[in-house]
TrEMBL record, chain B:
This is 4Fe-4S ferredoxin iron-sulfur binding domain-containing protein. It comes from Desulfotomaculum nigrificans (strain DSM 14880 / VKM B-2319 / CO-1-SRB) (Desulfotomaculum carboxydivorans). The chain crosses the membrane at residues 223-244. It is found in: Cell envelope. Its main location: other. Keywords: 4Fe-4S, Iron, Iron-sulfur, Membrane, Metal-binding, Repeat, Transmembrane, Transmembrane helix. CDD domains: HybA_like (cd10561).
Amino acid sequence: MENRSTKPTSVSRRGFLKMLGGVGLAGIAANIAGCSTDPAGGKGWMPQQYQVASSWPIQVKGRVPIDPNNPSIVRDDKKCILCGQCIEACEKVQTVMGYYELPIKDDITCVNCGQCTLWCPTGAITERDDIDKVLKAINDKNLHVVVQTAPATRVALGEEFGMPAGSIVEGKQVAALKKLGFDAVFDTNFTADLTIMEEGTELVKRITGELKKPLPQFTSCSPGWVKFCEYFYPDLLEHMSSAKSPQQMMGAVVKSYYAKQKGIDPEKIFSVSIMPCTAKKYECQRPEMNDAGQKAGKPNIRDVDVVLTTRELARMIKRAGINFNELEDAQYDSMLGEGTGAAVIFGTTGGVMEAAVRSAYFLITKQNPPEALLELTPVRGLNGVKEASLEIPGAGKINVAVCSGLGNARKILDQVREDIKQGLPPRYHFIEFMSCPGGCIGGGGQPRTALPPSDAVRQARLASLYTMDAKIYKKRLSHENQEVIQIYQNYFEHPMSELAEELLHTEYTDRGKHLTAKKKA
Amino acid sequence: MAKGVLVDLTKCVGCGGCTVACKLWNDMKFDDNNPTVGDKAKLSGKNWTVVHAHQVKNKDGETVWRFNKQQCLHCLEPACASACFAKALQKTKDGPVIYYPHLCVGCRYCMIACPFNIPKYEWDKTFPLVSKCQMCSTKIARGEAPACVSVCPQGVFKFGERDELLKEAKAIIAKDDKYIKEIYGEKEVGGTSWMYISDIPFKDLGFKTGLGTTPLPTYSHNFLRYTPFVAVGWGIILTGLYHYTKRRNTISKETNIKG
């Protein structure tokens, strides 16, 4: 055995210094040679061009506040260059920032519309990324993962893969979703048709006086618009249709009707939606959006679990290495997969109105509308505020208005408020509101094809939706959707039945107490 | 004349644009461990300014959100500068208290001296320095406002002559009932270049209160003025002792040899 008591060999001072010097030199050499433990490659997006010394750029204008807990959008400070484009979208287009008195109360006022994400030139503001939640669910063998796609994503998704603006990629989108591993792919068009049945019935009941709610009726499909009304015009909330948005109707139907028909435990269903919208991420988290769960006695079950934007779906497809442009068209799954031309135009401004009018005509007259009413041109196009007036036998003259972009909504809302104040009869029966300019085709979750968002791109997407309505879809009337007829026969009985009220309708929250709206906006 | 900034906390919506402006102008890196905005916002070697979010009760007992922008207050008589024997911290005639890294010896007395706990040490660096807001002194020298001030979309800040800002602040809080009748920075430790008005008591927003109105250098100057005498006197004493012991050793050696 080694003799541990032996004295260690002594190190001379010279030897010690030489050793230290050697170690030091080796360290410096390693550092210079780049022998760090970090992996090779970049560390993220760096706005290098702004990190050089120069005078203060004149175009620096600040930015909008974003709550770190905002369910829809997030901002990366490292990419923000304070260009003020988000303010442009929020203040000038959507009239949210700057329309409340300071000091603020207990909320960072945001309608979650995501228009700022479309305007941000550096991509600092983006949707909150929920892709991982969806991938986790897909990989969980115990879960039945269903997905629904909004009308407007099918005319925009292709732009992320180099196709021209407005390319129709409905079949490819379905094929991609099936390849990604979703168990069932449904079409939000189905519930858009269902929305028309519910909302149209409600409108007819308001007009005939059967329902004791005031006219005009406001549409309720755009969650950004709904929150805007809750913030700035809570006194007009009784005008809002109680019908849920198509996304939430689909969520509730999937975890009740579909679950029952298929014999699947609603708890084992994971419901995803692909939307052109960032506000939908917020909408699915609204506490009251758990009607299917309430019905099953398990209020923890959400009607829609995760919402992905069109951009997120594109990212998912790219990440999975799917060659989107080469995909063969696939079909939506049955039971909740049929849609009509009336539903597909939900994706653009004026579409909900036109679809509603087509079915309202049927609900009042029990006859299909004449051909002329299928092209309601005054409510088409990208104008911010549009009006139309039409004759429906038995109901007389129906006046409608359509606005998109919340700045335009204010014009109509202030007028409605003023008319009520002066005791004047309502000048409209039905008003469609969409939060984003152009409607969902210009939604905050759509591909950033032009910066800032341009009308040329919106026009191309809009035209494609009308082409689908007129030329591609076989049916153009919501009440002719065979699967909608079936769901009423098998489940809901008739529009606005007790069960339909329970699952397909909702109520709204007065958010006026969270801010002091400016008197004269 | 000395410049200053008046901060109206009631106008802040917490966008944090000022914190990004600071990074862009000063080429500061982002601090992954300490956010610049929110309830966990924290000043650090990389964060010269942060916007701290507070949930507080207002006069009517309602819970409200308020934001407090923190950065160096640039005292009229800075304790950090008086504590720095290397003159690495200096107050300019324009108002900013500037840090000169080439003079710094790294003693960190400034960090102990600062009543607002502002200067931070670059712990993560091999050759660390002290780090704090410079009030964009190079911008001010050109007559421009600091970067954070020039970017605020809500008009929270006003940059100008300190004396005039003080008058204006007094007029604002006298006229409007929502404000508390106090200007933070008017008198604190002798006054600061940054001044705040608010509708919520400052102590609820994380401000250090009860600091007194006496400039801190007054205390240190009372004995620090003896520093040259102490330094020279100590040198004389030590030299004297050296010669005394040297002489004693020589005498003792001589005695030993003789003995």
